[in-house]
Structures are given as structure tokens and as C-alpha cells.
Known about the structure:
Layout: E1 3-7, H1 18-21, H2 33-36, H3 44-57, H4 62-69, H5 78-87, E2 92-101, H6 102-111, E3 120-124, E4 126-128, E5 134-136, H7 153-166, E6 173-178, H8 184-189, E7 195-198, H9 203-213, E8 221-222, H10 228-240
Parallel strand pairs: 1-2, 1-6, 2-3, 6-7, 7-8
Antiparallel strand pairs: 4-5
Helix pairs in contact: 5-10
Amino acid sequence: MKFLLVFDFDHTIIDENSDTWIVKCAPESKLPNGLRNSYQPGHWTEYMGRVFVYLGDNGVKEDEMKRTMTTIPFTAGMIDLLGFIGENKEMFDCIIVSDSNTVFIDWILKAADFHKVFDEVFTNPAAFSSTGYLTVQHFHAHHCTKCPKNLCKRKVLNEFLDKQLERGVSYTQIIYIGDGGNDLCPVMFLKKNDIAMPRQGYTLEKRISQLARSLSPVQCSVLVWSSAIDIMSYLKSLIKE
Length: 241
């Protein structure tokens, strides 16, 4: 009897977007218009690569970036929720699937001592180059037309479940906790017994509602949350069962 918790990161675990928060390190805490306007839909990772070059060119070092990133607030109730999951790890496997990057997530989780709560983190690989610039790469290649070209969260989830099955691990229920448009693809993959937990007022909740209105609802149950305490209440009820 084990449950799989799948978390998005930006606007789900933390209450901000880690990629836009790093702009606080830029001169005057803003990017030049030319750079800001260079983003093309579906190519966020490439855009962030250019942002990191700009920061590097302006002498922003690793320690300053780390200090800035570890000031991002967690979402309301999230610290309690992650503490609760950490105390009940025999019941829950817990993964992050995020379009952020390994460096940012690692810094933030370690600073708050939550890295042990998560079994695996699936996100874009990042590292500092020999010249001290942060570089980021695509997580993988995929053929999904609905997702940004660097990451299809459904593919990640599918491959993780296959790998777990090979190890003899299957889950009573998958609980998917997210907020964004790129969380819809994995939510569409969930089965009747699973549960999607979209954050109230964010894109994922709106997309799920649109599907229900167009009479092609998702298969899984849907439970909206505004504070992570709502998620914790649900998990407590699962343990009681």
C-alpha cells in the first residue's frame, strides 16, 4: 500500500517562479527589453540560457545567485506538508517533475532541509561552467505536441512508473500536485483511481474545468487546493483508511 506524490515546483512547492526570481540578481533587478522579448513559446530553456549569460556577463556569481534563490517563499502550508510527508515516508514515494533546473531546486530544498523528502527530481540539468556561468540543458527529447520541447511531464511519469514496476513497486494511487499548463499532459494520463490536485486560480485548474465543460473530462478525480494544508488533510485521510 504505497502512494506516489508527484509535485511540480514553481508556484506549487515554492510560491514564485524560480526562473523569474533570479532576475533580482540582474543590474537594477531587471532584464534589457531585447533579452526579455527574445522568448519564443515552447523555448523557455533556451531563453533562460540567454538570461544566465547576461547575468554572467554582469559579474553575477554563484554565491549571490544562491543567496537570492534561497529567499523564495514556500507556498502557504507547504513547509507543514513536506514535514508531514517526511514523517510518513513508508506510505509515500515523492518525486518532483519541473521545468526549473537542478541547481535551483537543489539549493532551495537543501537550504530548507527538504531534499530527503523527495526520492527523485526530474528537471532540466544545470551546472556552472569553468568561467562561472550557469548553463542549462533540455531534460530530454520527446514527440509530444502539447508540451514544451525540452520536457513532457507525461513521458517522465510514464518512464518512472515503468522503472518502479521493474523493481516490483506499484502504487495504490497517484496524486499529482501542480498549477501550470504543462501539468495538464501528465494529468490526462492519470487513471480513474488517481487524483489531480490543481492549485486554485491557476492555469491547470482552468484547463481541467474547460475539458469538463467540453464534455471530455479527465479520468481521475480532481481536488483543488489553495493551501498545502488542504493537500495534507487529504493525505491524512488516506493514511487513516
